[in-house]
User: Fold these one by one.
Assistant:
Number 1:
Amino acid sequence: MMKTLVLVVHPNLAASQVNHRWAAAIEGQEGVTVHRLYEAYPDWQIDVAKEQALLEAHDRIVFQFPFYWYSSPPLLKKYLDDVLTYGWAYGSAGTKLHGKELLVAISMGGAHEDYQPGGRNQFTIPELLRPFQATSNMTGMKYLPVFSYGGLLKQSEADLDRSAELYVQHALRAEFSPLPLIEV
């Protein structure tokens, strides 16, 4: 059975409209470990050995976060800088993540149509998430289709609940087509 590690990276998860739902929906699923980084490291002092062991123990890694300022919350960047070390995650001897899968799941206040050439943000979501794909490539991981949920400001409670169901289905899917993005 595939083991999935979900890194929930939200600086105020309790106030979240969707990330809180997603974490609750996927937690308790068979083979899933949910790890809330801001709760684990309120002082930002990341236990590198612990995090590397967690990554090694799982087959699929999910980065779940709110997408703002065209990137992830800053603790995820620090996590990547601290945990994905030379000789462990990359470099000639850095093979610990080879063959694992990386999936990015983002929530956005803006609508998907804002993230198109000619749209308000000018760039597509896959273009803006390219650094995560590059990280996946550098570490020998397989980059899976992004799960994105947009237009949060206009969604009903039922829509938000449905997004959690779709997120779990996507994050735990056994096989993926080569689609670059799943939009809901």
Note: Strands lie at 4-8, 32-36, 60-66, 101-107, 142-143, 146-149, 181-183.
Number 2:
Amino acid sequence: MQQLPGENAPKNRILVKISIVAAIILVLLLPSYKVEQLVVEREARQKEAVDEVSNKWAGAQLLGGPMLVLPYVVNYTTPNGKPAQDRHYAYFLPTKLDMKAIAQPQERHRGIYKVMLYSAQVQMSGQFDIPDLSSLRITADQVLWGEAFVRLHLSDVGGLNDELSLNWNGTRKLVFAPNTSSDPYSSSSLAAPLPLQGPMELAPFSFSGNLQVNGSQQLLFAPLGKTTTVELQSTWPHPSYTGAGLPQQSTITGKGFSATWRSLAHRRNFPQQFRDGDRINSSIYDLSSSAFGVDLFVPVNAYQKTLRSVKYSLLCIVLTFTAFFLIEVVNKRSVHPFQYGLIGLALVLFYALLLSFSEYIGFNFAYALSALATFALIGWFVKGLLQSARLSTLLSAVLVLLYGYVFTILQLQDFALLLGSLGLFLTLAIVMYFSRKINW
């Protein structure tokens, strides 16, 4: 039987409609990308606000215990036959280091952004063994005894609230000031002079002292002791332990947290005593590499979750258009491509609403409110478009399931791949089932 010229018209219209809808989806990628860039920009603004407040208060703090430093000289002869001398430094770490810290959090605001600050009171005590110069191939005659000093690392010395001093061996009070020596470990540190008469004064040293320091976001401790014990308490209920080791003991309640770390020398990548010329992999020892501590952060970063949700925008647009297209074709209705574009813009604006609301009411409530507004708008539009409350309710139900599914993936990040794969498989099965009714 010969086909009439008009018999293929409905099929051609479907193919043309699919092509146009696909083109609309590609066009909608541009505003979706713009929203994604807006999220990144707002997150950068938040970081600027945090940095601005932190610079006026103090930055993240890394606290290391005291280190005994002995300057010494090495004599040599130049190629011209003239005697010369180089200055070097020998470092000796404490055998035992105990630190007890209490961090009082303070939540400040810069515009709409929250910044977590803290004031910490730290009790520090410990002891040194007798320095073993011979193991470093240094003689007593090389040491500049009168220039010996004690060094203490603090990443942001501007955070000190009071004079920092240590009771040294029960007989001396060491007062610290910014380190002005030229040794490679002098940055971000304080120093107190400890002039010695000679090797006869080398003996086991003990020390103790208190310091009050401001900081923001993070508080870390460097385990400089052969045995280092750190006890930290705070009223902040949302700690995130970070660094080279987790605490051996930790208690977190709604009223705060307490944590205890114990670190031994074999867990560090630097020795108990060394010289400024000693290297590991051609670099000086990184005394902060074994540091541990806590991040005092405001829970739930809305920008990160919003950014992750925007990355699902293409999936949501494609599945929504697919559902709308199937509803249109199966029920023999006709919808103009321009109206597909309006629905797509509503789906993109969902993410702009989500970003705006999340800055004020948190991500979860913002997601629910933005979704409710978007579903209501699309449902109202489709009801007037198709003149059917049933079809409008059906599409709204699809949107609820789709955005509820995405929200679940965002909450269960560890299972995102599994849930995503299962969800896409189920969606494909549903589309395959309903597409059987279409006369292609």
Note: The chain has two domains: 12-47+302-435, 59-296.
Number 3:
Amino acid sequence: MKIPIHICILGGGFGGLYTALYLQHFALFKSNRYQVTLIDRKDHLVFTPLLYELVTDELESWEIGPNYKKLLSHTNVDFCQGVIQSVDLEKRQVKWQSECGDELAIGEEILDYDYLVLAVGAQMRLEGVPGAATYAYTFRTVADAERLKQRLRILENSHSKTIQVAVVGAGPSGVELACKLADRLGKRGQVRLIERGYEVLKTFSRYSQKSAIKALKARRVQVDFDTSIEAVESDKIIVFQEGERTYIPVDLVLWTVGNRSIDWVRNLPCRQNDRGQLLTLPTLQLGDYPEVLALGDLAEIQYHPHKQLPATAQVAYQQAGCAAKNIYLAVRGKRLQKFYYLHLGEMLTLGKGAAVVSSFALKIDGWLASVIRQFVYLQRLPTVRHQLQVLGHWIGKWVRGIGRRR
């Protein structure tokens, strides 16, 4: 019996999962001549653009964290939950350990591949600031969101008159978190947004920046520019601001800045930039290993001499389609296509029931922008089945809300 051609995808985020799903659009990969395997440490997707809605209980975890096996149940993609230990690009082998719950299996397993997609993203870099890894909260996963909510409940049930929160980084994640936290905590909350630079949403449109500033002011979020964090302690942060060192008392610190490559990615024998990202050709391939494609946060694509693509879900989503198409072309011996990024605009949540949308000629903020944003992301959920389940839940909540108001 002929051994099937094996396509191995590492990482189940927007780059990896959607590559697996896009491969299913080609009848070729549904035959027993091909095997597609997806490996991720978690058992569920994290639909990161809607993760912030968990803070204010606007959405539930199952809506933005659907289970991989359920998502892939009607495909020929095999899902394996486990941790990648290393990749041997010469032998075309992946070493990994399977995981069940929080426990790793004893011993490594080896997967041979014919084509490999690297889409494991990056890790939050906390080691550079003393105390950050111990006391700061990250916000990248459903588990992070649940841990944050648990801490918020403790603070809300305390006898403190105020709850002091510092959010580090005024990029999109920091701004979205600050607005959601301010809405959740209300008058009791004192939320500070701490930024090393001199503006919020540095790489975003002027309209999005103005909308964000307006939303932050309306929620009494204090924004500290030109401020660097020197240390994080259990009840305060040490900052350098306006030429002097001072401290700010805090009950909670959220960290949203700084990425670093995963160790085994850094150890790969291929070209990397100074941040440890893999340098790829415009076709998403590694130059010396054309059977390997890299996408998402772990890759820097030779896209434009003076431009680097942002590390966003929108970029990874578009790269997934290109990666699947190029694997299809490669197995047929055809010339691969270059990846071209089309910037479709920006969408950010700016609090409970509020957002900004800036896309081509459409520029809108407030409640209507929030509705548009949620329905655009509804269409981006990975399968029609899951989209319908989430939509049905939203309609049910809306109907129940009308009933309670009568």
Note: The CA atoms of residues 51 and 131 lie 25 Å apart.
Number 4:
Amino acid sequence: MWEAAAILFIIVGALLWIDSLRARERAVEAGRSACARYDLQFLDETVSFARLRLARDEEGRLRIVRIYTFEFSETGNNRRNGAIVMLGQDPKDIRLEPYRLQ
């Protein structure tokens, strides 16, 4: 019985890891497109994991919510923070720190 529980735990962990890699790639795409939309520079071409929790979607299903942070710049001389909220594999919200319009 113990072996079956250990194998199940490893399988669930591997599936969560693979799902997280896919969500991270989608978050990078969302951050890149948001920066392009507002004529900003997406710095370091990456996002970093900040938080994980469970929430329900519009249809009432339980989904994993991941929050990723990233940095952007409007001039190239500074760094500002942004965040991407992923509901499952889909970007739900993108937040940008206030920045100066040129």
Note: Residues 2-96 form one domain.
